[in-house]
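Bumping with the actual sequence this time:
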Amino acid sequence: MQATTTIPTLAPEDTGLPMTACLLTRDVSRDGPRVEVSRQHGQQLTLRDVVSVSISDNPRIIDGGQLLNPGLRLVRAWVLLNEDVLLRYWSHELSQTDMMAALRPLGKPRGPR
């Protein structure tokens, strides 16, 4: 599969999170699987205001400072809900289109979007 050239930005309606998130792939994030999330609620996402959260069985902040609860709790829950999809996208096993179709927002049952 070809490497993804764009970095998808996920709005709150895509994730169920109160903030915007950004997904990186292994060629962009050589430090390991991570999702970047805004510390601010809403649609905005600026590089100086993001926190990196690991994509793992124990999601944790790995860069960018703090993300206070309930935001951190929600991001952790969303990462755990979508861990397989996020890891497959990070390693280029899924295209951006397939990843977007497979993501499950918080608070929504599994199934077609």
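The tokens above came from a reply further down the thread. The CA atoms of residues 8 and 46 lie 14 Å apart.
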